[in-house]
Amino acid sequence: MPVVTDRGLRPPDRTSSTPAADEGGGHAPAPPPHAVLQRQRLRESSARTYARSFPIVPVRASGMTITGADGTTYLDCLAGAGSLALGHNHPVVVEAIRQVLDSQAPLHALDLATPVKDTFVETLFALLPDDLARHGRIHFCGPTGADAVEAALKLTRTATGRHGVLAFTGAYHGMTAGALSVTGNVAVRTPVAPAPTDVTRLPYPYSYRCPFGIGGSEGAATGAKYIASLLDDPSGGVLPPAAMIVEPVQGEGGVIPAPDEWLREMRAITADRQIPLIVDEVQTGVARTGAFWAIEHAGITPDVLVLSKAVGGGLPLAVIVYDSRLDGWQVGAHTGTFRGNQLAMATGAATLRYAAEHDLAQHARVVGQRLRAELNRLAADRPSVGEVRGRGFMLGIEVVDRDAAPDALDSRPPAPELAARIRAEAFRRGLIVELGGREDSVVRLLPPLVISEAEADSVIERLAAAWTAAERNPTAA
Ligand code: PMP
């Protein structure tokens, strides 16, 4: 069991008279936060997202806390969209950066071999499931999850000579054209995604809103049966696909864990039909779900594993690791300038090592379970909670319309406005939580893996208070 220190949380403090930005390193005083926010509104694109929900100007951060230029401190349950596995400015991450800087190594080295890269690859491979480590090849991508998804699609298309892809309802794989074509959210795909003729959309096992009206393991099994029969039906309309792409827990899709048995079924269905299986662990990887890799819960080995976010220790890095039999790429088949970020490789290796040595997967399991129990308690007297679900430190609470009649599966329609109010009220109470899922009505908790039990209690306290306030105050969002 890792020793995770309590970082001495303080409640939101708006009384600080010294702007935090003035304290650091003898730089010129920072401009007042309201001016920075105002300039952002004027200069940056209308596509900006988090900045709208969380109008702060962060100037300091440590562990799970983030401090704005006005001195207000927040508990960060978003953690760089899951990329800050060890929280903000963890000493081993900071030290890894220092070591690279002190060594005068090049900071950027394209795809050349370097000692820093060699260490990253060796560290990663030592932690991968045996099968993948033994037969695996790694490709460094442009440093985003989306680019790694593009690479995975390209790799499997090249290897199979086929084009179609099997993807799931609720999936999120990124915002570039190929990644967007396998993403499920219609609102973000319209009107820019390519026509989805080469993507066959399959039902993900979402028990609370089971498309078959069954739910539970039986609903998931029915979905798997449907998928197998669709692929085998000579008149089913699906050309032999290049790949199936799946998330073991859908994150942006509303924190929906796939049952282990269902994931094993997907492995069997694809293996039996020579369809490469791509598992997107961009969000679930590196101890997040209570296993080092989420595929370990089901005990499956994919043909391609997609990794980003935590694997870079908070700096931009993305890779795919795949069965060497798929390695039919031509030289330069998936290239890009920024594939050699030495700082990210160093922080990635340090994060992987720390997470393994301190068994953060176990910490995510234990404290994650406790958080879930607390969320269930929070749900008990709140009919606007549809479902509490998740795995490890990926937790979600589906917000529903408590006044609507439940359907046959006892689920109610989503309540996106209430969800937005809860996020806003949480922010007012010094807690950063994001939304996801259908109509953005799932409150998601994605804390850093080093969250202490005291911090977890604080998260619950603030969320419960926010929920109560949001239900009372229909205009707060
Ligand atoms: N796949 C999954 C499962 C993700 O959660 C995300 C990002 N939330 C992506 C891919 C895309 O990653 P990026 O935003 O770095 O492109």
List the helices and strands and how they pair.
Layout lengths: L32 H11 L6 H4 L4 E5 L2 E4 L4 E4 L2 H4 L8 H13 L11 H13 L2 H6 E5 L4 H16 L4 E4 L8 H6 L3 H4 L9 E4 L13 H17 L10 E4 L2 E2 L5 E2 L2 H13 L4 E4 L14 H4 L5 E4 L11 E5 L18 H16 L2 H21 L4 E7 L2 E6 L16 H13 L2 E2 L1 E3 L5 E4 L7 H20 L5
Parallel strand pairs: 3-15, 5-6, 5-7, 7-10, 10-11
Antiparallel strand pairs: 1-2, 2-3, 4-12, 8-9, 11-12, 13-14, 14-17, 16-17
The chain binds 4'-deoxy-4'-aminopyridoxal-5'-phosphate (PMP).
The site of 4'-deoxy-4'-aminopyridoxal-5'-phosphate has 15 residues, from α7.
Q: Which key phrases capture this entry?
A:
477 residues, alpha/beta, Aspartate Aminotransferase, domain 2, Aspartate Aminotransferase, domain 1, 2 domains, 7-stranded mixed sheet, 4-stranded mixed sheet, 17 strands, 14% strand, globular, disordered N terminus, binds 4'-deoxy-4'-aminopyridoxal-5'-phosphate
Q: Can you characterise this structure?
A:
- The radius of gyration is 22 Å and the shape is globular.
- It is built from 16 helices and 17 strands.
- The chain has 2 domains: 94-357, Aspartate Aminotransferase, domain 2; 359-477, Aspartate Aminotransferase, domain 1 (Alpha-Beta Complex).
- Helix 5 packs parallel to helix 13 and helix 14 runs parallel beside helix 16.
- It is an alpha/beta fold.
- The two termini are 40 Å apart.
- The chain has a 7-stranded mixed sheet. A 4-stranded mixed sheet has the order 1-2-3-15. A 4-stranded antiparallel sheet has the order 13-14-17-16, covered by helices on one side.
- Bound molecules: 4'-deoxy-4'-aminopyridoxal-5'-phosphate (PMP).
- Residues 81, 144-146, 149, 172-174, 247, 251-252, 280, 282-283, 308 line the site of 4'-deoxy-4'-aminopyridoxal-5'-phosphate (PMP).
